[in-house]
Structures are given as C-alpha cells and as structure tokens.
Amino acid sequence: MTSKINHLIKERQQHPTQTRNIDHYTSIIQINRDKEMSNNNNNNNKREVEDQESLENQSSRKKVKEDESSTSTTSTTTTNKKNVKKQSSKVVLTSSFMLGELPFEQLYLDNLPNSQMYEKSYMHKDACSHVLVSKTDYIITADILGYIKFWKKQPQGIEFVKTFRSHQGLISSISVSHDGLWLCSIGLDKNVRIFDVINFDVTFSFKTTYLPLACQWIYSNDSSKQYLAISSRESSDIYIYNPMSEQEEEEQQQESSSTSSSKTLLGGSTPIQTLSFHKKPVHLIKFNTTYQAVISIDIGGGIEYWSCVPPFDGQIQGVEFEYKMDTDLYDLQKSKATPQSLNISANGKYLSIMANDKKIRIFNFTTGKLHRVYDESFDHINELQRSEDPTYYIEPTDFGRRMAVERDIDSSFENFINNLTKLNPPPQNNILFDESNNFLIYSNIVGIKIINMVTNKVVRVLGKIENSTRFLGLALYQGKNSGDATLGTKKRDAENDPTIFCLAYKKQRFYMLSRREPEDTDNPELGRDVFNEKVTKDEMLLSNLHAQRQLPRNAVIHTTLGDIHCQLFPDECPKTVENFTTHSKNGYYDGIIFHRVIKNFMVQTGDPLGDGTGGTSIWNKDFEDEFNRNLRHDRPFTLSMANAGPGTNGSQFFITTVPVTRLDNKHTVFGRVYKGMEVVLDIEKVKTDKNCWFGLHSLKSILISSPLRERQVCRIISLSSQLQTAKGTVLCFNEYETSERWLTSLELTNIRDKEYPDTNTRTILHTLLVNNNNNNYYYYSD
Q: Per the record, which residues fall in region Disordered (predicted)?
C-alpha cells in the first residue's frame, strides 16, 4: 500500500504544479501546528503576534463553524484557548486550517473494508468482551466467562488455533505488546496471565494484591526490557512490572540467533514501581510507540503523559508544551465527561477519545490541542433522523429499538463507574485510525462509520442493514498474510485482506466485515454464522426454529440500468415479506416485465402475464393487508403491494417515485429503497406506448437476492425498441422464448393516464413473429 503511494508521488514529482499540490495537502497540518507553537512560545516578533491575534479575534467574532452536511457530524478544530473556554459546552471550536483533498484517496479506501453486511461470525462460550489484532497476524478474543481464544489470519478469513480458560470470571482487560509477541490478561480473580502469542501458550502468571482494572505493555527503544503497567480498581495507583528476569535477559543477549518467540518469561510478580499522579482509578492506558510515551486516563477525565523509561517521569521527546494549562487536555474534566475509550494513531500524532457525552475528541499528541470534535449525541442523531438523509435514516420502529439499546449501553457503563470493584463495562466504543492516519473508524447507532479526516467527510457506512446488531469494540487488520511456519502454511504473495473484527452488545459472537459479502449457501450449517461451540439440544432446537422463521431483511434488484437495494420489514409485515421472498427464491418472477410505468407516480411489476391481470400468492389465494402506522407512503422509493381492493394481495408490487399518502391503509408497505434511487427514476423515464403503460426501453434482467444469499431468483424482460411500419407497430425484444410466452397472453388498453386500467375496455391483439436483422420482432395488427 505504502509503496503504491510512494510510486505515484515519485511520478508526480516530475510535474512541479502537481508536486506543490501534494505538498500542500500533506503538510497542511504541520504548518498549522507550527503556527500554534509560535503562539504558545511567544518567540515571534510583536508584529507577527499582533497579526495572529487579529486573525483569531476575527474568527472569534465570526464564530466560524465547520458543519459539513455529508459528514453528519460536527467537526471542529481549535485555535483560540479563550474560545474553547467560552464554547466548551457546545463543543464549537474555530478552524485553524483549510479542508483540502486527500491525494490518492481511492488507494487508501481500497485497503479498507466496504461490505454492507458482516461476512462471518464466530461463537464464544458467552458474551464477547474483548478483541485485539496483533502484528503477528493473530486475532485474540475474550468473553465474560474468562475464556481467551487465538485465531490466525488467513489470506481470506481466519482459522481457529487454541482456547484457554484464563480467568475464573470476568476479564478486566487484555493487551498485546507492540511487536505482537506477548499477550497479558487480567481479571477480577486478581490473576495476571502472560501468553506467548506465537506459540499460543501461557508462559507466566502471578496474582496481585489488588483488583486490577487496566493493563498495557510498554517498552523503550534503548532497552530490550518489556514492562507491564497495571492499574487498580481500588485506588488511583498504576503498578509497573518487569516480567522478564535478569538471568533470562543475559541468556537472550548471549544467544543472538534465537528468535524473540522463544523467550520465556520468569519471575517479576513484584512491582518495580508505583505511580500515583492520578486522583481517581485509571481505566484507560495506551502506549505511544512513536514518542516512547504512555497516556493514561482516569474515570474523572484526567489525562496524563508519562515516560516509558524508569523512573517513568522523565521528559517526553517531541512534546511541545511545558504545562497542561497550555493545552486542551482538561477538556474532559471541564465538560464533566467520563472517557470510554482511548486509541492512538499509527504515527503517534493523534489521540482519539470517546466519552459518555457522545463527543469524539481527536487530540494532537505533541501540542495537546483539540484537532477535531465529532458530535454523536442523541440530539444530533434525532436531528439526522428528522432530516431523512438516506445515508443515516432508519425506519421509526427500528430507530426506537436502536435508541433503547444505546440507552442500555450508557446505563451499563454508568453502573460500571459506580461499581468499579464488581462490574465490567460493556465493550468499548473505540475510535480507530487506519494505517495511513487519514481515516477514523468507529461504530454508532447507524453502523460503522469511516470518516476522511482530511476532507472531513463520511466516506462509508458499513453494516447499517444489520439492524439487530449494535457493533462495539472494533479492531482493524490491514496487513498482508504471508503464511505461518508454526501452522504449516506456506508463504505466498497474497493480496491485502482488510478486515474489521468487532463485537456486539450482549452477543455471544464476534464479527468480520471485509471487502466480501456473505457467501451464497442454502445450508444453514455453512452460513455466515459459524456454530463453533457446542450447544445443547434445546438451544439447537430454538436456533433451528428461529432460522426457519427468520426472513430476509434486504433485497438487491440488479438491472441493466443499475442496482436497486431495498430494505424489507419482516417484523411489521411478515406475511407480505414471506410471499415476496419465497416467490423470488422459487423463480416465480422469471420472464416478466415492468408492465406499468407512470411518471411522477410509480413503476409496477410482479405479474407473470405482463399485463397487470395475473399473479397469485405463494398460498394460491389472495392474502390480507398488513398495514402499520409507521410504514406509510409518505416518501418516494417506497416498496408496496399492488391489489384490486382490500385483502386481494397476490404477487404484484410497485415502487413509488413520489410521496403518495392517499395510498396509506390501501396498499401494504413492506420495504424501502435505500440505494439505487436513480435507477428507479431511470425506469420511470422510459418511453411508453401511446395506448398502453408498459415501458419500451431495455430492462434486461432483475435479480432479487436475500441478504444471506447472493443468488439469481428472477429475470424480467422488457421491450428494447419499437418500429412503425405500414402494417402497424413492431416491437423488438432481446430474448425470444420468454418474450413469445408473454406476448401470447398480452392484453393492451386504450386508457392512457388512469392509475387503475378499466378491465372492460381491454382488447386482446393478435401477434405475428417477424425475423429481421437477427432480432426477434413481434407484429401487432391494428
């Protein structure tokens, strides 16, 4: 990935104008950081200081806000400390740099997941609590019963390796060393377990005298020692351990040929130092490898930087402030917000913090200044819902259920803060950086957002249609798997397989979102939800019953004009969705057309006769309507059932192109188009015959697929052109057999503009096959 970028930059260096553009965008943050340094240090001359102050005053008077409509978030940047104090409650900060374009953005996006559904999920003994990705291509997961599982990343997907019962009860925290060789886990049983990741085995364990809360591996570039920092639930202290004995270190220095994976951890159960610069228990600790510093945050919002070298209080290289008062690191305490997660970018320049006030704060590590603030509060989410932006809009019933889950998550975290010695928090809603440091990845009520921090736009929303799963605890894999000698896999030149591994609230599974959609299979045992744990007969019976009753929640209609993605509502209208999806799976819709196209109204299909008079349900009789007060024809692109009156639903359905509220409580709404609206509008614009309502432009095929099966279930043929001859109107088709079968029973009407054609005025016209220019023509006599 990096080599591609470097190659393109090298090519562009041959063109001075393009090179200047690249330098502008890639150095824009550095330029503004230098401006902030000059202001903080007061080393510039008086005229420069006055100019800077005047600019800041102007921006303060104008109250500049950055509110990009495409981001659905409130993104801000800091320039003036006074403005921060005045507006901290609203988190509205003035901008100190221009938003530009990200060069080679598509190359970066190609190394990020893009699937709308999770590809696979795997089970644990109980609800999953942690997931991590190591640099050695291992994925480590943990659950609330104390089990830890090791998985090996394969060129596609993962492979199970081993499972351990690490703790008797809740696991408080797990941490993987920066080199990916060591794993530490701590639990409420006061045990500390240290694993050799490469050999997936426990090498050392000891018991603490306190209840541990958080753990983190730290090390120095100038030393081979690996230290372990563990915080306490009962106090604000952080304990530092050196798990490796002096004897083992000497052996490793003598045996230079030995690999790091052959190390054996000994002793070190006594802390070498206790740090006490926090006022409340510390629940978040991260190591910044670039600047050789540790960042710790307590439950009161206090943020501290400290050195990774004994005595762990030395000067941190690269930090550009002397006093915390010159930074924005007190912002959490000013807002009385409790941080929930902490992450560091790959280059060490940025910190991401999610707090219980639903604000995502991005700090510049070296200056301590706020770089961005994104608003994910309930007020902002409700505002987006009212705006009905198709990217974020959720059906009212589903939205209410999701909001209830959000409140439950907040309540669980609050209970954890109030009962530190007994409870664990829900999985962290962490904010990830990609390896290029240009994109933020985090989950919210809609799904998993990917934000371009340079352009300040949401570029992707993953997993929105997974409406029964609230993703949490993300971990990103962007490496290239090259095999593993321990597992007997050969090294190979493999393509990148970017994957997001994530947990879900109160779920026994962890999930994979990649660049692949779920595989097509009719066997539930080979589906995307893998049953890798033993289940009881009762549980299996309930699972089978649930699987039998489960209906698809998504359909994709593929046409020659593009794809139409529809969300279905099986909870509100199960019988209608069952009828629609069963017909699709059985191929009932093969060989039919969009027989009714009315501009500024709708497009209709689903009739095997192709004239609006045919079609029946899967029960071979009409079935009742399923009206719901939350599902109305109050917006365009609504999927609804056609009928001939109350309780006469069969197989025909239509998609509206405008709001048609007069159809409420007359036609059953069972879906919405959430992507491909332009395709529906293109179908609406096709030319139609003067005396009939069916389209005359090519719409070769439509494929309807369930969210769990990408299989072809229906093909609809339509007219491709018409010719006027002395004998009458000649209609041209692309496929002979299907079209001939349709034409033998075709009925036309002389009524042009009525919504419901009068069946009494229909006339059946004779057909005559005419072959011309290797096409199949049908002649209609007048």
A: 1-85, 245-266
Residue 305 pairs with which residues in a beta bridge?
295
What is the pTM for the complete model shown?
0.63
Residue of 371, 509, 667, 672 marked catalytic: 667
Q: Is 629 a catalytic residue?
A: no
- Which of these is catalytic: 111, 116, 288, 643? 643
- 654 labelled catalytic: yes
Q: Is 515 a catalytic residue?
A: no
Exposure on the CB side of residue 245, measured as CA atoms within 13 A: 10
Query: For residue 570, what are the CA distances in angstroms to 397, 418, 576, 628?
Result: 12, 40, 8, 12
Of these residues, 80, 604, 649, 652, which one is catalytic? 604
Within a domain: 186 = no
141 Rama class: left (phi>0) / alpha (psi -120 to 50) / beta? beta
Q: Which of 654, 670, 694, 733 is catalytic?
A: 654
User: Domain range for residue 678?
Assistant: 554-719
Instruction: Return the pLDDT at 479.
Output: 83
596 noted as active-site residue:
yes
663 is catalytic: yes
Residue spans of beta strands (DSSP E) within 676-713: 703-705
Q: How many domains is the chain partitioned into structurally?
A: 2
Of 719, 739, 770, the residue that ends a domain is 719
C-alpha dist (Å) from residue 387 to 99, 258, 383, 674, 715: 25, 62, 6, 15, 36
Of 643, 660, 553, which is closest to residue 604 (Cα–Cα)? 643
Any domain includes 412: no
Quick count: other Cβ atoms within 10 Å of Cβ 274?
11
**Residue 398 covered by a domain:** no
Q: Which tokens hold the place of 733?
A: 């088709």
Q: Which of 719, 747, 763 is the last residue of a domain?
A: 719
Residues 633-652, buried b or exposed e (16+ Cβ, 10 A)?
bebbbbbbbbbeeeeebbbb
Mean pLDDT of each 10-residue bin along the chain, 782 residues long: 49 36 30 41 40 41 38 41 34 42 93 94 94 96 96 95 94 95 96 94 93 94 85 96 63 49 55 94 96 96 93 86 94 96 96 97 97 95 91 88 93 94 91 96 97 95 92 93 54 77 95 90 73 68 55 78 85 90 80 82 87 88 90 93 92 94 93 91 78 43 38 31 40 35 34 31 29 34 30
Q: In angstroms, rounded to a whole number, what is the distance separating the alpha carbons of residues 82 and 101?
A: 30
Q: Which of 596, 632, 633, 672 is catalytic?
A: 596
Residue with tokens 């919504």: 755
Mapping DSSP to helix (H, G, I), strand (E, B) and coil, where does residue 315 land? coil
Residue 569 resides in a domain: yes
Do 699 and 683 form a contact (C-beta atoms < 8 A)?
Answer: yes
Catalytic residue, candidates 104, 531, 601, 627: 601
Q: What share of the chain is helix, strand, coil (3-state, %, to 5)?
A: 20, 30, 50
Return the CATH number at 605: 2.40.100.10
- Supply 665's token pair: 């409580």
In the chain, DSSP finds a helix count (H) and a strand count (E) of 13, 39
Identify the active-site residue in 663, 703, 708, 719.
663
206 given a catalytic annotation: no
